[in-house]
Structure formats: structure tokens, C-alpha cells
């Protein structure tokens, strides 16, 4: 005979859990809020985003190893005098990019010369540990500190910077909150649970523990990503080229490398070319402005989300020549996938012989009581309630 | 009584007080981010005085000033997601620096972004040089400025065309009253772009042991889709060469003369 689930001890606390009829209660706004923000979820997505973000951060920072002092030091491109001048007079209030109020690259810790080099290489080590999942309760917040510090200089306004801020901040929040309600040793309390280690999920014998911290971090990340993409979509509506559908022309034909005659000779059929360009431009606008409507929808909407992720990645890489931002774009879009989506991917992978080992990384069939109910399930609950009453 | 539910119970939620405190923190954080996005200036919009940026909504101004901005500054998340690449039709530039020794002999000429630099470094150099394209229109004063006793009329730096030279500009620092009024538009480099320019000049002098540097911006407007409107493409224009002038290292490093 099957035991009453309400009387079973909770996997998280070990105490006898009260019946958590979350999906039944989701009709109330308060319960919907609680379900959205606090229902525990499998930390798989958090770990995946950490690994991808770690690789991205290493790809972002490692290639400038030979120019650390020139790029970030106080005797480099933006030197001590430039910082001083930027804080004087009217200019101080009208900087196009505000000076970061703190950075580990500033004195007394940083400055220039060997100190900057030491901080740089220590940062690379921390990012490596973060990617591997070692001591995540320390390395995740440190990764955020590193990102903020290396983007604090007002002279470089890279579009990747705000995306890196978002990813690293919420991953830090997630790893700070992860595992507090689990019975861990004091060492794991300080450094973070061991099962965050890369491949730790495969080696671990126990079931992965759902975590409210992972949910909070992922929801914050999702909200911020959606707000960022929606805002940039709305901003495009202030610009004539987006209305006329030719905005993508300019990154496709950069000013310094394109001449009138060449551009004209290159395009044999301008009508077809501009129709395609119009379609792509409006598709970008529609996807970005419509994202809040389908970001949290399941079913076929996931294909729209992933289609936009792939198209955006290809576009950023090839059209805008921003490979790192393309990678960051994919990570942002993947953050919108839920446990249910990852479980679906896992069940697909199990059908393919060679890819089956990968499925072991993904969440199993999700314990649906802490997942968002589908609209069909909500209807069936409503119907059963009516019948019952 | 609740109806029967087919699903099993899931893992426990956090204690109620944790959820309440968490909800307050989440709301406060998201409010700060939303207010920061909403208070971004929009535009440029067409106005009677030409294109101008619109003021951010006053509704959120105070919240932004006293709550959102200090909080987000500490987190360094003040970006309002109005990305530069959203605007396509903007000029691109390279900076040409002729480095001179003490006898005014040319040491070498450097271009930024350096085509020989690694990709990641070149990207950052390009980000640095991009500021230099931010020329701003100069608003002519309605009246004439009268200098205080013993003082000079403030000077401003404006772009002037080089006589008998096509597509060449030079930066002239002239008294504000002598700004020509017969031109439809007068442009000047933004204060921020001049600050970045001086910083670049200092670094180039330091790195190459030069005592002076001559800086020239080579910029080009993007090709527009309008080239398909006529029967033939319009002729290509040369790069616009804007000469900033010669900067001595001792002047560049002197705080009183650099501004």
C-alpha cells in the first residue's frame, strides 16, 4: 500500500512535511508568488549555467593576458590622471559610463605593475575553480567581484559587460543560498556542497537535493534577462532604421570596410536582399519585445525561445562579430529553461544510444508538485474541484 | 475539504519568515532595476533646437536618485540596456598617432585599433577609439560673453575645415565670442572624448618613449541602403581626417594644462 505522501519525511528537512499542494494552491496570487520564487528546484540548471558562464569568463579574460597592465593598470590606456580628470567639474556628472565605485584593480590592492599581474592571475585561478565547481560558496561571489572589477574602467564600454554582471551576480546569489537547509559538514558549510563539482552529479550516489536557493537565483536571473532583452527591443523602436527594417544592414556592411561601389556590386538582387533583411529585422524586434509573453510558457513556445537563442547567437557571432556576446546570449536563453524542460531533453537523449550517458547529467522525471503546472493541469484541477464540491 | 490531488507531495518550502523576508528583498531589488531602466533618457527626438534627448520621467526620478542609483552603483549594475549597437548608422573611426622625439623627428606612426594586435586587445582598443566619434553640436550663445576684469573670454575647441583641403578638419581653440556664426552647424569634440584622447596620447608617448604626439582621427560614415536608389552608386568619399593637433607629453601629464 502506498504511503500517504503528506506523512513522508521531507527530502530537504528530514521532518514530516505538511502536504504541499502547491499546484493546487496556485490559483491564489500569493501562492503563485510562492511557487514562482520559492518552490525548490533541481540545481542542475544552476550548475550548467555556472559551467557555461565560467568558460565564458575565462574566454573573456584569458586572451588579454599579455596586455593586463596596459588595459587595466593605472599607467595604461586610462591612467591615473584620466581617472582624476573624469571626477572633476561638470564631466563627473556626465560620464557616458560611470566609474565603478570599487574594484580590486584600484589601489590599495591594485594599481599597476606586478600587483595588477598578481590580481589577474589569481582571478584566472578563481574563475577556473568556479567553473570546476570547487568551493562555490567562495568562488561564485569572487567571480562576481572579478567581473565587476575588470569592467569598472569607464573607458571600455563593452556590451558584454552588463550581461556578465547579471550572470555572475545571480550565480553568486544561487551558490550562497544553495544547500543551507541540508545536513552538511562545517567545511561544506563554508566552501559549499561537494556535489556542485563538475561531474559530481554523475559520481554522487544520492539523489540531487532540490533547492530553494537555486530557484530564487534562477528566477532573478530569468527576470533580469527578460527585462534586459525586452528593454533593448523597446529601445530599437526609437530608431528609424529598425522601423524601416534595414537596421541589420549596418553591421553587415561596417563603415570602415565597405565602400559604395563594392556594396552595390556585391548585391545582385537588391529587392530580394532587402526583403530578407526586413524579415530578419522585424523578427528580431518581434522576438525581443514579445519575450515576456513566452519566456515562462512551456510546450511549443520553447521552440520559439530556443529558435531565438540560436538565431541570436548566429547573428551576434557572424553579423555583429561579437562571439563572446553570442555565447552569453545562449547562456541567458538557457537560463529560461525549467527542470521540466531539462527532463524532457533527458528523456529525448535516452532514445539515442550514443548520447544516453549525457542523460544521466540531466534531471530525471521531475517531481511535478514543485513545478509550474501546465494550463491543461490547471483546468483539470478546476474541473475536479467543481465535481468534488 | 480539499479535493483529492493525484500528485505526490514535494520537498518542503522554506519557513514562512524566510519567504516573507526573501519576498521583500526580491521586490526591492527588482524595483531598483525597473526604475533604473525606466529613468533612461530617450531619444534623440526632433525638437525646435534640433535633435535632443528627452528627459527621463519625473515620476521615477526621485526614487532613482535616492534609492535605485546608490544601490545599483554599489552593485555596478547601472546599465539601462540601451545598447550602442542598436544604432546602426554611426560613423567608425581609427586614430592615427605620429610619435615624435625631442628633436621633433618622427619615431613611428601608430594606428588604433592596431591591426596587428590580438583580437581581444583590438576589441578594447576599438572601444577606446569609439568615444572619439562622439562629436557634439555647439550651441551658439544668444549674446556676447564679456570676460571678467583681468580674465579672458573662455576658449572652446571646435572643428574647422582646413582651407583648400577636402574632407579635412582641424581642431581650433578659439574665444567663445569668435565662433563663426555663418555656418549652419558647428561641431566640437565632447569633453569626454578629449579626456580619452589625452589619455591615449600619454600612453602612446610612455610606451614609445616619445616626447610629443600628433593625433588625427580618420572617420568614415557608414554606407547606407540608399545607394540602391539611383542608377549608379554614389562616388566613394575619402575618410574624414580630423587633426586634433600636437600634444607634448609634459603638457599631457600636467593637470593644470590638460583640461
Order of helices and strands of chain A: HHHHHHHHHHHHHHHHHHHH
The structural class of chain B is alpha+beta
Q: Kindly state the mean pLDDT of chain A as a whole number? A: 85
Rg of chain B (CA only): 26 Å
Alpha plus pi helix count of chain A:
20
Helical residues, percent of chain A: 55-70%
Order of helices and strands of chain B: HEEHEEHEEEEHEEHH
Number of strands of chain B: 10
Low-confidence stretches of chain A at least 5 residues in length (pLDDT < 50)?
Answer: 1-22
Assembly state here? heterodimer
| Total of DSSP H or I helical runs spanning 4+ residues of chain B | 6
Summarize this structure briefly.
With 389 residues, chain A is mostly helical.
Please give a structural write-up.
The complex is a heterodimer of chains A (389) and B (259). The radius of gyration of chain A is 24 Å and the shape is globular. Chain A has helices at 22-25, 29-38, 44-61, 68-72, 80-86, 114-132, 136-150, 160-177, 186-191, 200-203, 212-236, 240-243, 249-252, 260-266, 270-294, 301-319, 323-334, 339-349, 356-359, 375-388. Chain A contains 20 helices and no strands. With 389 residues, chain A is an all-alpha fold. Chain B is of the alpha+beta class and 259 residues long. Chain B has six helices and ten strands. In chain B, the strands form three sheets. A six-stranded mixed β-sheet of chain B has the order 4-3-9-10-7-6. A two-stranded antiparallel sheet of chain B has the order 1-2. In chain B, helix 1 (16-38) crosses helix 2 (58-75). The termini of chain B are far apart. Chains A and B meet through helix 1, helix 2, helix 5, helix 8 and helix 11 of A and helix 1, helix 2, helix 3 and helix 4 of B.
